[in-house]
Amino acid sequence: MQMRFSTYRLFACMGVVLLAGLPGVAAADESDSCIKLSDDLAVAGCTRTIDSHQYTGRSLARVYARRGGAYRAQGDLTHAMADYNESMRIDPTYPSAYNNRGNAWYHSGKFDRAIADYNQAIQLDPKSGLAYANRGSAWGAKGDLNRAIVDFDQAIQLDPKDAEAYYNRGSAWRGRGDLDRAIADYDQAILLDPKDTKAYYNRGMAREMKRSLREALADFKMHAQLAPYGQKALKRVSKELSAI
User: Fold this and answer.
1) Would the pLDDT of 203 be above 90?
2) Cα–Cα distances in Å, from 75 out to 70, 98, 156, 176?
3) What is the maximum alpha-carbon separation in the chain?
């Protein structure tokens, strides 16, 4: 099922959570110094923010969570986990720290631990569509497609414009052999994100499985345009059509 099986086992993998808006008068300074920096700059920027000793409580918890996300993006899970844990120690009610640590567990292949953290994130913030989508990806990675679909349903209900959730639910439906529902979800994912290469590819795969070869060929052509490395499926279906 990149997470919410590969680029793309079954799901498309979720990146680090975008941190929520910052509270109080510290918001602008905190944001400028750390939160909105790119991953390659955030470790240093957040370290400076932490060392300034200007922030406490939720604001400081967010800084640690952001630095943890930057460490994870660099492949440094040891420091990422340490920062997520510190974020939770400072503010045990901050849901994004649990969600982000869940992502780290997910990328480590420890799906049960990931699910436990997503459970906590959802308990703290029942309206977090991202946490439901991430938990759905973890259920999918464990092969429990029914639970995955339930979570993607909830994620879509909370955020009907989440293209990734539609894509992931489509992949779960395809894993269950329900190709029509899979195609419908890929349709919606493409409508919301017309440059989603994996959605074109997987819709093409579903259409090929239904023997709708011309439609599959169109999807693979679009996939190849957006991702020039993706020529294999296009050549395969073109060969099948020429043989008809």
Assistant:
1) yes
2) 9, 18, 30, 33
3) 71
Burial class (CB in 10 A: 0-12, 13-18, 19+), 189: buried
- Give how far the C-alpha of residue 179 lies from the chain's centroid of Cα atoms, to the nearest Å: 23
Cα(3)–Cα(109) distance, rounded to whole angstroms? 11
* Cα end-to-end distance, the chain, whole Å: 32
Kindly indicate the confidence band of residue 18, based on its pLDDT and cuts at 50, 70 and 90: very low
**Alpha helices, DSSP H, located in the chain:** 27-30, 39-51, 57-73, 77-90, 95-107, 111-124, 129-141, 145-158, 163-175, 179-192, 197-209, 213-226, 232-242
* Distance, CA of 53 to CA of 110 (rounded, Å): 34
Closest alpha carbon to 14 in 84, 90, 102, 89: 102
**pLDDT value of residue 66:** 93
pLDDT, one tens digit per residue, over 114-162 is 999 999 999 999 999 999 999 999 999 999 999 999 999 999 999 999 9
CA distance 236 to 232: 6
